[in-house]
Amino acid sequence: MTLIAIVSAKGSPGASTAALAFTLTWPSPVLLAECDPAGGDLLAGYLARYELPANRGVLPLASAALRGTAEAELAGNLIDLDAPRQQRMALPGLTEPAQSATLDLAWTSLGEFFARMAAQMVIADCGRLSAAHPPWALLAKADLVLLALRPHSLRTVSPAMSAVTAMRRQLPAGFVENSLGLLLIGGGIGGREVSRHLGVPVVASLPWDTATAGALCGDGRGRRRAPLMRRSAAAYESITALIAARRMDSALSRRDTEPLTPVLP
Known about the structure:
Blueprint: E1 3-8, H1 15-25, E2 30-34, H2 58-67, H3 70-73, E3 79-80, E4 88-91, H4 107-115, E5 121-128, H5 136-139, E6 144-149, H6 154-170, H7 175-179, E7 180-185, H8 191-198, E8 202-206, H9 210-216, H10 227-257
Parallel strand pairs: 1-5, 1-6, 2-4, 2-5, 6-7, 7-8
Antiparallel strand pairs: 3-4
Helix pairs in contact: 1-10, 2-4
């Protein structure tokens, strides 16, 4: 189906909050996968008021992906964020950053598994690229990588340049040009200027809504019609339209480069 990864350069620009807001507001079935090597936030934040088992999540599923049993073991590692409809599911992240080193060999298998899931769109919260052991192999399998940043000032935008450079170095040739977009969170420098500075298009923007962001982190209650939630819901159209357009371009490009089959008399 579709794999969308969300990353950030450094700091806390709101990438994890955006991933959760997308999951809670998008119309299609969504699986939120916490793939941040620094550890997940859901169990200690949005889901903190529930008593949930801590032995499920990305680590056991990654092991299952290496064994080729991820499909059979997926359901047992998920949490239903909108029970009992199973339309908004979550795969909790690591509980200790030290566990990230054990996933280096599993990110490829896990990314391939996410990419071929038919029932749900997968949003992978992949955290900061400046952290140890970024999930490069998983990012390479994504249909779209969104680099979240605050365009508040040059100070908040500049670290994204290093992130884009790292992705050019670590990901396949042409990936940045074809599969990377910016997710702007909050106001400040205009989207056109940020895009020109980084050489990456702006795909969506969200407001800096601290009250709703706090609620999504487990601090109080949020409103479904709050600015962050409304804009998150609206971002669905632009993000999915971009993915569809790029898939079409890729298909046409492959067709144009295929050798012609000679027609025999």
